[in-house]
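Case study 2.
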Amino acid sequence: MASNDELPDSHRKEVAEARGDRARKAAEAREAERKAKAAAKLRENLMRRKTQARARRAGSADETQGLPAAKTDESS
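Prediction:
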């Protein structure tokens, strides 16, 4: 393939536009993926908060995930 210096001006412009299109499409794809992940995280958080609210109304303990807020054992 010829280098950019060997291409006519009109073709150089087309090559640059094609590269710009690819970069723009890649950026749009990354943005769409980021938004999809954020939406999934928000849905997960909302479901967890609804479950906690239902548990409080029912009078049962929350089903927490992760580390507990306080130690249950004083020996450690």
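The mean pLDDT is 77.
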